[in-house]
Structures
1.
Amino acid sequence: MMVEEMGRRKVNQRDVYVIRFYNRLDETRKGEIACPTAGEALKWVEAFDEAKQQAEYALSRGGSARTKLNMEANIDLEGHRPRVRRYAFGLKKLIRIGQGPETLLRQSSTLVNDARGDGFYEGGDNGDAIEAHEWKCVRTINGVRIFEDVANFKAGRGVLVKAVAVAEASADAVFEVISKLDKRQRYEWDTVTGDSELIDSYEGHYDVVYCVYDPKYLSRWQSKRDFVFSRQWVRGQDGTYTILQFPAVHKKRPPKSGYRRTNITPSTWEIRNLKKRTDAEPPSCLVTHMLEIHSKRWFKWKRTSYSKFEKTIPYALLLQVAGLKEYIGANPAFKYETSATVVESKLSDVPNGVSDVPNGEYVDEEMEEQFYDATDSSSDEEESDEDDDEEDKKEIKVKLKNVSWAIASLSLKRPKAPGASNVLDASVDPVNIDPSQFQGSLRKGNGDKDSNCWNSPSGMGFMIRGKTYLKDNAKVMGGEPLLTLISVDWLKVDKAVDNIGLHPKCLVQSEPGKKLPFILVISLQVPSKPNYCLVLYYAADRPVSESSSLGKFVNGSDSYRDARFKLIPSIVQGYWMVKRAVGTKACLLGKAVTCRYLRKDNFLEIDVDIGSSAVARSVIGLVLGYVTSLIVDLAILIEGKEETDLPEYVLGTVRLNRIELDSAVSFEV
């Protein structure tokens, strides 16, 4: 079974968040689940994923468990409601986790969820890759802190500014408030985009909004303004929301008489849950609104409270955080969470997709309804990282908060990867890896000033789980990559190509490639017109130890690999909006997109289908628009879930310097 998030959809004048589940071998067997919030949709995805893992574990034990699971292999949702409930109860027993919908009920419920909140933020403000931001607080207004990025200004660019506040509600609830365009609600907190209407939406994670704005609230004698902007939202695997807002043009809303068409300042919202001290404590989250300002008025206002800046749209955008904070604080209902998930079966027979059952309405059990409601009484087991800095004699522990100054004090020596000593077979003599024997279509660069090339940086720019992570959530700075990046191919293909390692012209099939003990091939399939494929080849100088975490990954099942294959991105140089869209948080690729694995001879190939996720497609589309000006670092590792797998180590890294799309080489199967 495969599960995919479909994003937001409007059904019967109501926004719902849809996930689709289907059989990978037979896609005619499918269905959809509609949830009231994006957070609850995430919990369903996690529940299905956990159920798959539990089923595989039970199957591995063999015997009666195999017979029992084979009898329950197909869940039939087309029968009467009592049968549906019986299967739902079986799913509840199968899941037994601290996340996801554990209790399925027919009627709606408004019970208070007194368990721990959803999607706790794991790590600090800068994620799992180190960023060179120097945020300085310049003003505090109504409980909202206003920061500017001093490092960005020193680099000669516009001033990067953000407003930060704590909202007494979960990240899911705050996201719903920001994303909804209901005028009555927005009038209570939004002074800029209160008069908004939805023009169009795409793939559930991207929409276009038209807004009318009366500047009389800022200054006198100005005509009314209107603007069109796009909103693109992403939810990270840690439950953090990112909303990107860009000025846009749409044929449905051309400029009209009496209004001055304005380009709204590009901005981003970031909403992340904060850790609770006790289970009884209400949820809270950190809300950040960030934008870039090119105005001399900012500097005057910063020094002397220059009033003219307070009459600009950028200033009004910053103060949206203050309005949002006060609005949520004045509504105690945000401290309580409700759930009214609806499930639909037999999707192919229902042309309009999803619908729901009115709250509190009695449904006859014999009626052939397509939906039933679900109440979530779950809790989240994740905990965030500690806020205090620590430096151990054996490991350098750096807090993920603001480490730009800490980097300068660290030794430039590239340390050996911690925890990687037993990964490769020490009883075998290492072979000499000569990268000059392997020539890919993308050349190796001569430094960061070079373009359209690749390099292999140290893993010191990435934060990974330390030896004691399961006890104290401490992360350590990565060391030298375990595997050597020997070649990179940048290919142009008509459609996504799997199993590149079996192609006769592939590096793996060359004579030097066959002599290497082990090669890890990672093929990133980039959806576009045309499609692209970035292939990374990592080599080991000795065979992989079967008892190591890498050995278990290489020879494990696909579900085992999906749960552990992790990538950490970092935009080292580039447009700040792209940096916020990509982020720096580690991502389990097997849970975010479809990954296909091929284990043959001396290599393992991982084909990463970025186009399998609507969210990933939208983000990669943004990245491709700026790719010629970006320097991108990627780190690849295996997530340590057990104490024996810790500390983590960086498998491999790559730095992509200002890649040119036209340089991709055509690849024919």
Note: Residues 135-335 form a domain with the Alpha-D-Glucose-1,6-Bisphosphate; Chain A, domain 4 fold (CATH 3.30.530.20).
2.
Amino acid sequence: MGCKYSKVSAAHRSIERRLNYDGGDDDDDDAIILNLTSEENHIPIHVADPLAFNNSFVQQRQQAIDNRSYQSAIESCQPTSLQQLTDIIQAFSKGKSIVDSHWIIFYWIVRNIQYDTGAYISGKCGDQSPEVVFRKRKGVSVGYANLYKYLCDRLEISCQIISGYAKGYEFENRIDAPTETDHTWNAVEIDQHWYLIESTWGAGYLNEQSIFQHEPNLYYFFPRPNEMICHHLPDDNKWQLLQTPIKMAQYLEMPHFHPLYFDLNIELVSPRNQFHLDLVPGKSYALVFLKVPSDVHLMADLKLNDQVIDGGSYITFDKRQQISRCYFAPIKTGKYRIYLYGKRGNSTAGEYRSILDFVLDVKQMPKNSISFPKVWKNFSEFDLEVISPRNTYLIELDNGDKHSEILIKSPTNVELRGYLQNERKQEVMGGQQVYYDRQKNIWRCKFAPDRHGLFEALIMAKKNTDPDTYTSVVAFKIEAKFIPSPPISYPFTWQLFHDLDLKIEAPRNRSSAIWSGNASYTEILIQAPDVIQLSCNIKYDNVEIENGSLAQFNNEKKLWQLLFAPERTGRHELNVYARKINDKESSLNAVVKFDLDVRKLQRPMKFPMTYNKFQIEKCQIYTPIDGILKQGSIVPIHCAIPGAKSVNLTVDSQLLNNEGYRGSILKRQIQVGSKDVVIYAKYGKNSSFDSLIKYTVR
């Protein structure tokens, strides 16, 4: 009796993309495939009776399994004696096919008989007669087989008990070939064809804690002999039901196949008949090659002393060869276990289960050891490629390094996004910046830890035609040491920020704007090409603050000055928008977003209202910066208004023509009336004036 299944932990990595590590290339691996799949390495396994699993039999088997009335009847019957069970099965089987009768027997046993773990581990199996197994409702394999044959005999159905060897619980720890049989199952005859029945493994499995998991597995109801031989070797060769029986040495060296391997129609290309793997000559990894149906997805683990090796495995799908290449890289000498898992279907739902196990015995480490990042299925689907860093899953930050950068190539229709989290799985706010470098045709993924410790840099992707649903594709670990204080952080940037070649001059390396306790507003400075227009707003609780922002161009510094005035304390959102000035059809789009945490606010204020022409012509207000003027006060007006032919003001609806405008500078004093003060300018050949700035009066 052994473990058929082992459930996949959260550390398992789903990885299906060639990252070209260790200096290898596909041609190298193709040569390995040709060598490892040569006929001399292949043990042919063919059933002795190819007509046994004919279409009619296969259909009968599946119909019996799918028959809900059979299941309900078996699940509801509660016999109090073996004789009563026999009578119930005889009555229920009357008039039914032999296949149905076998299903009724098999299903009752696997539903009602528990495996006797204590007897198995102690080696004291005791009485395993059908009567005792029924009464205790538990037994070891010989007890299951005895009960199965007893019920078949009562129905006058031909059945044999088979003794042999099974790759069950702790089989992988065996050093030498077994000298005594350790397992029992059945063979039955139907219409002059022999079939196998394995009710012990059909009832469940022992987990890693040596606890029996009662989980009926219908695969063992007539398993095919050419599959069964991978984990069950009869003592009598005739019960292999194969054309050419295999020997004990061949059986022991075969990989450890699980039932799901066959259910998913997976084919092991290489190594075909080898349980113990070696590193590829001249490489830092071992290789397993599989042919997998398109709707089947794989995961892998490399373990040493039952501990998953981080970065120890990945799987890549070779579209040209239609082969999944599974790479396993050890970190030191030792005896490793290789686990492969699979599931069918494209959804994230469903559990990966064991399909195949190997042993990797590393007695001497290669000079250059490698490791792999964690990669998900869509990494391959989106045709992504990691350019840097190579040959590692762990990025080390020390000696004053403030951030790490991961470079990824992608098709033009794929977008990436990043996410940095600490050891407690908490997001590091402002810890990432991901954008596409169109000059280099590469994605730049920057990650900045906020303290010493271990972090995960997760990269997600989606096709740009899809809804805004990013899925995980690749992740690296970052080990941060001696991070400078304060640590850097990134504001959230849209791709347009980088496409327009914008650069943040202040605040640098911060995701939050700087706030002074005695201030009324904060400032962001951005460098932009001449053809770019910027705008901005400030939001509190996702509501825009009216006249709470001012976007203007500082003509002396040649920078855009973006000012933000909160109305209250608390966390605010500062948004910057941009577009090309000569693109009349385009609207202003978001390019960068900062946070602003206001803990103290002495004097809230409002900015003057500015119109679109103010930003297009790159105007600037020196004074007054406060948008609310006091009625009757004397106020100096000082603005930069480049390129205007004429500048006018209205005060109390009276027009002040071009007074104080010289050399692109408007500078004069006004006495504030009771109505809005508006500044206009006329450009080029236009006969009309455009509104630029409006102050309100209180």
Note: Residues 164 and 181 are 5 Å apart (CA to CA).
